[in-house]
Amino acid sequence: MVLQKRLDYGSHGHRVPDKPPVTTLAPVKRSLRIRKKQMYALDLLATAAETLLADQDNLSSRPNINGTPEGMKSVKVEQFDKAFPLRSMAVQRDACKGCTVGRAGISGFLRQANMRLAENSSTQNLADSVLESLTANSDVLAKDSFVRSRKSCRLGFGLGTIPEYGAIGVCQPWSTRSAEVKQVHRARPTVIRSQADTDAAALCALVETMDLDTRPPAEASSGSSSGVHMCSDYGGHSSHPSCLANVQHAACRDDDENSSGCVHPSTSGNNRGYIPHYIGDRRIRRLFASRLRKAARNKICGKMSCKGSKLNFCAKKMSTVRRRVQQTTLKRKRHAQLYSEKSSDEVKLTIKSFSIPELLIEIPDNATVGSLKKTVSDAVTTIIEGGLRVGVLIQGKNIQNDNKTLRQAGICRGRKLDDIGFTLECEAARDSSPGVIVPEEDFVDASDVDKFATIKPEEPDENEQLMQDFPGCSLSDPGSVDYPVEWTTQETSASSQAIVPFADQNVEALAIASVPLSRSKRLDFGQRRIRRPFTVAEVEVLVEAVEHLGTGRWRDVKFRAFDNAHHRTYVDLKDKWKTLVHTASIAPQQRRGEPVPQELLDRVLAAQSYWSQQQAKLQGDPPVPEICPT
DNA sequence: CTTAGGG
DNA sequence: CCCTAAG
């Protein structure tokens, strides 16, 4: 069986359709002990999973996965909301917060959870209270999230729920988009039944009301708890091996100064309309995994509210080791820095929610529940195995200097804290977990992200283009070959998600289908692109292009030789040329990376020299002849 | 948006 | 690769 871990992060910003999950949760605590919390979350998750599984046995019917017309989505949603206002809200809220829910089915979980709660008379009251609290806290995000979850959620089949803490759901991969939609909107009734279906491969776990404080989960109150969701998305989105914690902003924290402090406008709980502002205002951060290296780190994203101002915490994968070094725990950082300065104003941060990495599990339908449990357990274990690290992001930049004071870092009372993020990542490398795999398709959805981000998605077919241009060249696409594991960005604002036309989904699907190997992904704020060393073939193509076009026409070079290599920008080409020139100038022993044939380097120097002269000569004569000496 | 350079 | 100043 294969298990995939995914990282999600929640953001208020935009959402990528495919994105997975997240969730949210309850109101928050102001403490910053994330680590512990996370652990709790995991524990809860595990517990919930078990519980769910146990319950699962009772379920037999299979959810209706027949597609529902896309157009119906909105309508259904509305209906759903009306029918189950409270639940809906709760669900939405969750979804928005943590759940980015890609295709995972957070909403499904929530529903499931709700249903279960409802069904269980003994827990009814509790459930109600939980829902109430959720509802009460529901904020602007609710709607958005809902939309998001709907879209992303493939199927959310809850396995069971633990009223007090949350619920864990299993997602069935077999569902189609329409099916997903249907499920999400339809229903409550089918959700639970679907659980029984063993075809599903995805597993989603959601834990709510995770208390961030060190208190045991049990002690957490709905009002002051944060939720953790763990989801596995079968959707084939990129999965993040890491875990992510989403801290929802507090936009809506009750105690959050009545939302006055909220940066984002919030809609009333009754307002089901989508609220674009919310998203727009917020900075979105994404988690992503370093695509290279075993470093599959998990991060957690969350938001915090700070006396009116909110902090957005996001986790993303850091690709560099040095970032990894940042092991400072959130708590530590906060405490140490917060109190180090005597006269400094106190900065209060509230973590609204945490999302646990999404897990994708593929398991044969004839597998036993026990094996499923074990799979889930292994997945969770893998996630927490390596411990957690915390990073601080300000305006998307990772603050590596732990000695900086918060004030120096820009985290102070008067500041707008929206652009401050915290990242939590699991140390455990994804490779460490045997059963975890990342489907290629997972990366395909990057295009989705791009759509929202307005950034062009990277295409996998760059090599093809190169081949066309340079038949003799054989290029390998590092992106598709060298980086088996990539994470798509997640982010997404509820708003963007909500805004996305349904048609887009189809487009996305098509895109994915046509570009199966694509690993494109959108980078999150502050995220560094994955390193994709130029191959010799690419170098050759570059050299040839420069020989013809010169060294000052990178855009042309790009179009000519790397038009389809979307991950190579003209700036990249320029940079590469720069390094090539440098490489050619140094002793072979000093060169690093894949050795470039001396012949090419010679051409580089020749072309560089030639074009330098041309430039000097033709200072004012733009049109450059496409002839180059070699 | 492109270039050009420094980081 | 990133970031930015310039044009």
UniProtKB/TrEMBL annotation:
<protein>
    <recommendedName>
        <fullName>Telomere-binding protein 1</fullName>
    </recommendedName>
</protein>
<dbReference type="GO" id="GO:0042803">
    <property type="term" value="F:protein homodimerization activity"/>
</dbReference>
<dbReference type="InterPro" id="IPR057625">
    <property type="entry name" value="TPR1-6-like_ubiquitin"/>
</dbReference>
<feature type="domain" description="Ubiquitin-like">
    <location>
        <begin position="347"/>
        <end position="411"/>
    </location>
</feature>
<dbReference type="InterPro" id="IPR000626">
    <property type="entry name" value="Ubiquitin-like_dom"/>
</dbReference>
<dbReference type="GO" id="GO:0032204">
    <property type="term" value="P:regulation of telomere maintenance"/>
</dbReference>
<feature type="domain" description="Myb-like">
    <location>
        <begin position="526"/>
        <end position="581"/>
    </location>
</feature>
<dbReference type="InterPro" id="IPR001005">
    <property type="entry name" value="SANT/Myb"/>
</dbReference>
<feature type="region of interest" description="Disordered">
    <location>
        <begin position="1"/>
        <end position="20"/>
    </location>
</feature>
<dbReference type="InterPro" id="IPR009057">
    <property type="entry name" value="Homeodomain-like_sf"/>
</dbReference>
<dbReference type="InterPro" id="IPR017930">
    <property type="entry name" value="Myb_dom"/>
</dbReference>
<dbReference type="Pfam" id="PF23603">
    <property type="entry name" value="Ubiquitin_TPR1"/>
</dbReference>
<keyword id="KW-0238">DNA-binding</keyword>
<feature type="compositionally biased region" description="Basic and acidic residues">
    <location>
        <begin position="1"/>
        <end position="18"/>
    </location>
</feature>
<dbReference type="InterPro" id="IPR031105">
    <property type="entry name" value="TRP_plant"/>
</dbReference>
<feature type="domain" description="HTH myb-type">
    <location>
        <begin position="526"/>
        <end position="585"/>
    </location>
</feature>
<dbReference type="GO" id="GO:0042162">
    <property type="term" value="F:telomeric DNA binding"/>
</dbReference>
<dbReference type="InterPro" id="IPR029071">
    <property type="entry name" value="Ubiquitin-like_domsf"/>
</dbReference>
